[in-house]
Prior knowledge:
Layout: H1 2-19, E1 37-40, E2 44-48, E3 52-60, E4 71-75, E5 80-86, E6 93-99, E7 103-111, E8 114-123, E9 126-130, E10 134-136, E11 140-141, E12 144-148, E13 162-165, E14 171-173, E15 180-182, E16 186-193, E17 199-207, E18 209-210, E19 214-215, E20 219-220, E21 225-229, E22 242-245, E23 248-249, E24 252-255, E25 259-263, E26 273-280, E27 285-293, H2 314-317, E28 323-329, E29 341-347, E30 353-363, E31 371-376, E32 396-402, E33 407-414, E34 422-429
Parallel strand pairs: 2-8, 10-17, 18-27, 20-27
Antiparallel strand pairs: 1-3, 3-6, 4-7, 5-6, 7-8, 9-12, 11-15, 13-16, 14-15, 16-17, 19-21, 21-25, 22-23, 22-26, 24-25, 26-27, 28-34, 29-33, 30-32, 30-34, 31-33
Amino acid sequence: MKRISALALGVAAFAVAQGCSNEPGLYLSGPAGPAAQVKVSNSNLTMIIGDSLMVAARAEDAVGNATTDATTLSPCDGVSTVTSQSSSPEWATVAYIKGASLGASCVVATAAGITDTIRVSVGPAGVMIVGPDVVGSGNDGAYTVVAVDRAGTELTGTVQYAWASSNTARLAVDKDNGAVIGKSPGAVDVRLVAPGGANAKKTLSVNPGVFAGTLSATSAAPGALVTATRAADGPKFDADVTAKLDAFGTFVDGFTDNTVTFAVPATGSTAAGVLTLANMSFEQIAQTIAFTSTKATGDVYGPANLDPATDPDVDAVKSANGNVYMTSAGLCSGGGGADCDDFFTITAGASDRTVKVTLTWNNSEAATGDLDILWCNADCSAYVGNFDGAGSSKPEVSTVTIPAGETWHLWINNYSQTATQWSNIKVTLQ
């Protein structure tokens, strides 16, 4: 009774839609003209396997009047079947279309040698996604589907699923076939919807892939520059590439499509670590490789730059991009021992030299220490320059003009860290 009522409503709606048309010539008095078209109640059907839906068809003349021509409904293949054909006051033929197997099919309505086609899609009652729980960043993978009917019986056959990713920044999913490519690491869902509405999701983890390129060194002291070169078929480097050693982020000094240069950070340990290069290429790929920071908290300059009398010349140690990298620990003795402060010599030439220094840093866990830019004269017996960088801002910025022929010392002062804390530092000179 429910199916008959549904059909009646559908038929009535169709008749009302035809009768309300403002086009001239519809339902004129007198007999209909010769058949010019076949009209169906629904040109697209989507159903669950084993279920049936009612459809209707009739022949019409050129202006939409129903003719008396016999109408038949015939399946295109075995995916759908047609049963219980009958007639009604408004329709020449009414029938059930049943989903017999998974897939796309059609039913053809024929009258007076004219046809129209009902497209049919038969989907499962339930689905489950099958595939790996982990996908490597930069790697691809594929997932399959187990489909079942209402009784829970596994089905064979092909059906077009709609695939999607819950986070396209982490996982790219081909919407038609479920092929995936891992991108940024993290948890993500693969989702699909079947014809008829059955749906499923699978939660997986995108993990960093393995870096197949090379490093200019596999171990170095904090502050040293190391260059990673990508494999020939590896992801390219771009402006947002990052480098992290274990949990410690570091500074990227420069990059090309094929290389990225980073400063080694202190990690508080000299044990072998894991270097992660992330945000590679437009796909934001992350990959890892083994690396060791050879000093727990000391840097590549220590202890030579702890004393202004023996500090390095900044022009000799800065990178091609004008940067100097170091680590400053909080262990100080009498205000100047251990690794609390760092000094660099800057000398003006035949004319005055104006220098802008930008200081930024990453503190170790729980550290709240502040770093400052100070300046002292050739023997550090007096402050020189200005103290606009000696505040609590981050980054610190200081601009000074060194008189011609004079030597000053750039003084990076570690203000308040404790003995077990440290900072990885970047100093940029312009």
